[in-house]
Design goal:
The complex is a heterodimer of chains A (about 110) and B (about 110). With about 110 residues, chain A is mainly beta. Chain A is built from no helices and eleven strands. In chain A, strands 2, 4, 5, 9, 10 and 11 form a six-stranded mixed beta sheet that branches. In chain A, strands 1-3-8-7-6 form a five-stranded antiparallel beta sheet, with no helix packed on it. The N and C termini of chain A lie far apart (about 40 Å). The mean pLDDT of chain A is about 90. Chain B has no helices and eleven strands. Chain B is mostly beta strands and about 110 residues long. Chain B is about 0% helix and about 55% strand. The chains are: A mainly beta (about 110), B mainly beta (about 110). At the A-B interface, β5 and β10 of A face β4, β5 and β9 of B.
């Protein structure tokens, strides 16, 4: 079965610092991987997705993620944090049960201080 | 602009009540999903539907049922609400079976007293 593990329930950075949110996956087949963001009092919205094309994926708001098969990782990065990046971030993997559903990680709350 | 609309943002119910959570999407998507979100547990799939009148159990279907009579509408039903069903409920839809990208509603925060 497919699963994802997000390391760290909370990550704190200063404005302008590098953002690194970690995600490791487990999958018996080539995975489709996603990062979603949830701002306060809102639903989730897609940041970026990996679907077996380029291993470096660029998303919205300056975020990107790199698929590393050897490390079974799909970490999310942004070179310079902005206050507006404060939100909860979820990594997800597409399940392979015959239907296209997503299995989500437990989430990482990103805190940005001035 | 694409939209998934959940009928209530906040809902307070009593133990034992029958509860309906409604979700409507305007994107003509085939697939619709109900997740619950709890702190520290992330999102867990309750039920999903890939076509009208079709439904499939997710990871935690116990205590829930669903209804999909029209393509745009997907309802989650708590037959007899219990306090452990206090949670944030998120509806989502997807029109692309292969890629699995989901579009989410804003959520319904349900409190069962």
């Amino acid at each position: 079965a497919q699963s994802v593990t997000q390391l760290g329930s909370h990550v704190s950075v200063s404005e302008g610092a590098l953002v690194l949110l970690r995600c490791n996956y487990s999958s018996s087949v080539p995975p489709y991987l996603f990062w979603y963001v949830q701002y306060p009092n809102q639903g989730l919205q897609l940041l970026l997705k990996y679907t077996s094309a380029a291993t470096l994926v660029k998303g919205i708001n300056g975020f990107e993620a790199e698929f590393k098969k050897s490390e079974t990782s799909f970490h999310l990065t942004k070179p310079s944090a902005h206050m507006s990046d404060a939100a909860e971030y979820f990594c997800a993997v597409r399940t392979n049960s015959g239907y296209s559903t997503l299995t989500f990680g437990k989430g990482t709350m990103l805190l940005v201080s001035p | 602009d694409v939209k998934v609309t959940q009928s209530s943002r906040y809902l307070v119910k009593r133990t034992g009540e029958k509860v309906f959570l409604e979700c409507v999407q305007d994107m003509d998507h085939e697939n619709m999903f109900w997740y619950r979100q709890d702190p520290g547990l992330g999102l867990r799939l309750i039920y999903f539907s890939y076509d009208v009148k079709m439904k499939e159990k997710g990871d935690i279907p116990e205590g829930y049922s669903v209804s999909r009579e029209k393509k745009e509408r997907f309802s989650l039903i708590l037959e007899s609400a219990s306090t452990n069903q206090t949670s944030m409920y998120l509806c989502a839809s997807s029109g692309t079976v292969v890629l699995g990208e989901l579009f989410f509603g804003s959520g319904t925060q349900l409190s069962v007293l």
